[in-house]
Design a protein that fits this description.
- The chain has 222 residues and is an alpha/beta fold.
- It is built from nine helices and eight strands.
- The strands form two sheets. A five-stranded parallel sheet has the order 2-6-1-7-8, sandwiched between helices. It has a three-stranded antiparallel sheet with strand order 3-4-5, covered by helices on one side.
- Helix 2 crosses helix 4.
- The longest helix is centred in the middle third of the chain and has 17 residues, at 105-121.
- The chain is globular.
- The chain binds 2'-deoxycytidine-5'-monophosphate (DC).
- The site of 2'-deoxycytidine-5'-monophosphate has 15 residues, from helix 2, helix 4 and helix 8.
C-alpha cells in the first residue's frame, strides 16, 4: 500500500479513538491520539499548580516539558519528562485541563511539530480537533466523526464507569456540552469541519457500521 495519511476530527465521545484504532489495525498503519498530548500538557500544568487558562503561566512551563510518544505493540504510550503517563491523563479533571490548555496558541504551536513528524515518518491515522484543518491540511483522507451529544455522553459514561470512576449521566453530559462549546468557540484552531472532510454521523450506527462507513470513505478517496 502507498503511504496514506488520514485525519480524523470530531467532538469528544464520538468514538474517534476506537474507530482510529480499528482502522489502524485494519490498514496496518500507526494511530496517533493527539488529545493525549493536550491531556499530558494539562497534567503537567496541574502538577505545577498553574492556572490552565493563563497563557503566560502555561507558556513559562513549556520549556520544562518534554513530551515523547512511543508506539509499543501498536498502542500509544505518552511520556512526560520520561515518565509514562498511562491512565493519569484519562480523568474528567484532565479532560477539563486539556480543554483549557488546548485553547492557548503557545500550547498548540508547541505540539504541532510532534504531530506533523508522525505523518512525515509513516502512514498514519491521527485523531483530534484540528487535524484536517491545521495540523495536516494535505491529508489524503479527512473524516469528521460526530453524533448527538446525548449519544456521546452515554458512551463516555460507559467508558468512565468501566474504569471505576463515579460519575452520573448528567455530569458527563454537562461536562461534554461545556467542552464542546469551549472547543468550538475558541479563537485558536477551533473544532470545525474542514471544507474537504467527509461528515460521518454515527448516532444511529453501531461500532461495526461506523468502521465500515469509514473504510468506504477511505477507499473512495484512494
Ligand atoms: O480527544 P480528547 O478528549 O482526549 O481531547 C482532550 C482535549 O484536547 C479536548 O477538549 C480538545 C483538545 N484537543 C484539541 O484541541 N486538539 C486536538 N487535536 C486534540 C484535542
Amino acid at each position: 500500500m502507498d503511504k496514506i495519511v488520514i485525519a480524523l476530527d470530531g467532538p469528544s465521545g464520538a468514538g474517534k479513538s476506537s474507530l482510529a484504532k480499528a482502522i489502524a489495525a485494519k490498514l496496518g498503519i500507526v494511530y496517533l491520539d493527539t488529545g493525549a498530548l493536550y491531556r499530558t500538557v494539562g497534567l503537567f500544568v496541574r502538577r505545577n499548580d498553574a492556572d490552565p487558562k493563563n497563557e503566560e503561566a502555561v507558556s513559562a512551563l513549556l520549556p520544562e516539558l518534554d513530551i515523547d510518544v512511543k508506539i509499543v505493540d501498536g498502542a500509544q504510550q505518552v511520556y512526560l519528562n520520561g515518565e509514562c503517563v498511562g491512565d493519569a491523563i484519562r480523568t474528567p479533571e484532565m479532560s477539563m485541563y486539556a480543554s483549557a490548555v488546548s485553547a492557548l496558541p503557545s500550547v498548540r504551536a508547541f505540539l504541532l511539530d510532534t504531530q506533523r513528524a508522525f505523518a512525515r515518518r509513516s502512514s498514519v491515522i491521527m485523531d483530534g480537533r484540528d487535524i484536517g484543518t491545521v495540523v495536516l491540511p494535505d491529508a489524503d483522507v479527512k473524516i469528521f466523526l460526530t453524533a448527538s451529544d446525548e449519544v456521546r455522553a452515554q458512551r463516555r459514561l460507559k467508558e468512565l464507569l468501566e474504569k471505576g470512576q463515579t460519575v452520573t449521566f448528567e455530569e458527563v453530559l454537562s461536562d461534554m456540552r461545556a467542552r464542546d462549546l469551549a472547543d468550538s468557540t475558541r479563537a485558536a484552531a477551533p473544532l470545525k469541519i474542514a471544507d474537504d472532510a467527509k461528515l460521518l454521523d454515527n448516532s444511529e450506527l453501531d461500532f461495526d457500521g461506523t468502521v465500515a462507513a469509514a473504510l468506504d470513505i477511505i477507499s473512495a478517496a484512494k
